[in-house]
Every structure is written in structure tokens, then in C-alpha cells.
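Per reviewer request, we include the raw input and output of the structure prediction for the construct analysed in the revised manuscript.
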Amino acid sequence: MAIVFLGTPAFAVPSLRRLVDEGQEIAAVFTQPDRPTGRGRRPSPPAVKEAARELGLPVRQPEGMSDPSVLAELASLSPEAGVGVAYGQILRREVLEIPPKGVLNVHPALLPRHRGASPIPAAILAGDLETGVTIILMDPGMDTGPILAQRSLPIDDSDTAGALTEKLADVAADLVAETLPRWLRGEIDPQPQDHELATKAPLLKKEHGAIDWALPAVDIWRRVRAYNPWPGAYTTMDGGLLRVWQAWPLPGSGAMAGTVITLNDEQRAGLPPGADEGAFGVQAGDGVLAVLTAQREGRRVLPAGEFLRGMRDFIGRRLGS
């Protein structure tokens, strides 16, 4: 029984590879069109397109799945089911009804929690102790379909959105490889979601990365992790941006919010294992944010100690919001 695979970013690649390794017949891979990236704004292929070509699979890159010609081509493939992994579009009913077994969608969250475009950062921002992967049978809503399978994963204090994405991509590959054959054999009874428990994870924007030093240090720390690698947590200094890539929340008070301070011995004892000994602090609304790695605009990322050596009179300055 042939299936179609719909996916775009690197997160989807392990699932595609795993389905091929498991012997699933993939009639075609649908992915987003090449998009301009980088300073030169040259068109760049999605990660799934590159993986599909490497695997010898036919690739389709329509602008939209609801175009009549795309619907006709999809129907001509006679897929038994579809598998969507971060495809990047909400599929309309006319698409979902083509495969007799519907379209399975892989979502990196424990639905109904964190429906939407940015579930991995949302879990970190919320201070969740765990997240996971949910496979649903897609309906026309935003991650509202019934649940076919679910697997949880603890969130470590060191996890950034980037690190957690890599972990969840592997969990997703395992779960979809186990779930798809069982679904095709009719062994799974879909379970409706409890919509009253749903939370939303809206699309991230660049401005979300701006640090508000009036917030508690714990909240800023979560933002540093949730916005790594994009859009990055940043503050302002001398009219330019200062990005904070790694940080740690500590107790402490006394200075105005946003003031750069030297960590005392008690605070240094509270840093995580392996933290840069040159870490400095920034006073938050409640507590202190220890900065472990930082980056001035147009410069490279530096450990805090090396950053300080190149910044005279930095201690005592007040960073912008």
C-alpha cells in the first residue's frame, strides 16, 4: 500500500528516512517550494527535498495543495494514507479525503497542549517538565484531530528549542514507524481530544526575542532557551544588539533591572556544572540572570569571560529592554 509523505524542515527528515527503512512504499514526497535564504537571498531547497532526492523518491513542490491540478495528481497516486510532518500548510478537507485511510499528522507536543506553529518553544516558555510527540488523524482544524498515538519526553534544564527539536525528531520517527502499520491494519481506535484542555502555540516573530529585564530571571532564562536558535534572545547596548545564547537564573537583588553586575561567591556556586567561570549577571525584576555566552552584533558568540575581557567598564552598565 502506497503512502504520500508531506514535510518540509529538517525535523521531518528522520521520519521520512525511517519510513523508507521500514519498507513503506512512498508514492511521492510533497514539500514546500524552494525559498530565498541567507544574505544572498538565493533559493534554497527544503531539507526534506534534499533527503527525498538522496533516497530516490519523487518530489512535488506545489505552492498550495488545494489547486485542482495538485488534487488531481494526488488522486492519481492512489495513496492509502498520507503522513504529514511539519509540512507547513493546513490541509483542506478535499486533500484529506483523497487517501482512504486519511492523513496522519506528527505534532511535537502532547496534544491538546500547545496546538499551533511553535509547540516546542511554547513548552519551554511554559516551564513544562515534559513534552512529546502526538500523532493525530488530521481534520481541517489546527491540530484538532483525534489522537492515534502519543509519547512523552522530559524537558531538561539545559534544553534549548534547537536541542529539543532534535530529540523530538527522533521520537517522532520511532512513533510514526510504529503507528502507521498499525493504523493501516485497523488496529487503532482514534481518541478525540479534550478541546477544553487545549492551549495555543502561535508563530514566533523576531520581536519576541527582545528581553524585558523587568521580568523574573526564571522567565527570561526560559525565553533564552525557547528562542535559541530563532529568533534569539536579545537586548540593546550602545545602539546595537547584544544576544544572550546561554544563561542561568540565580537569586539576588539590589540593582536596577537591566544592570550588569558581578556574581558573588554564593551565586557562582549556583551555576550549572561546566558553566564559564567568567559568567556575569544582569539584574532582573526578580533574581539575577547569569549570562554564560553572549554575542555583540556582527561579532562571534563568546563565553562570558572572554566577552568581558573585550568590554571595559561593562560591569555597572544598564542594558536596554
